[in-house]
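Example record

One chain of 178 residues, shown exactly as stored in the release files.
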Amino acid sequence: MIARLFGALLALTILPGLALAHGPTRQKVTETIEVAAPPAKVWARIQEFNDMSWHPRVAKTDGAPGNTVDTARLVTLKDGGELAETLYRYDAAKMSYATLLPHVDLKILPVTNFSAYLTVKPGKTPETSVVEYRTAFYRGDPNGDPPPELNEEAAIKAVTAFSREGLEGIKKAVEQGS
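Predicted structure tokens for this chain:
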């Protein structure tokens, strides 16, 4: 009986601490931009998975042509970094695709397990569109006490900047015809 009582007391002492000792929380960032063009025109510019020339940070994209799920692409950034992404969803009818970035150079994006969804939606008028760039990820260092450059704040800041730059690049590419 005393052993059971001791075990119960021990459990009551340890369990609250275990509840607080969890890993990082999955972060989400959603950015949107309005484009002065109909959705079909915007989609025509960004629909090819192997073409990220609309993103200001991208120097080139290498991969197989087409939009086949599980296709990989290597994105070379202008600063010399690289991102290896995989297409895991593609729906031309919904003007949407999703990518996975399972491994990333933490100097480029301080994140792990990164996924992104790029979608074109109708805008307020038939001649406008809204492009949504939705991401989900964990901070760069999944351990208990990450350094500042790999914590949630750094991850959110970096992903928000990358997403925003990409959306502004889409807007510019479509509206200026580049």
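Notes: The longest strand covers residues 111-122.
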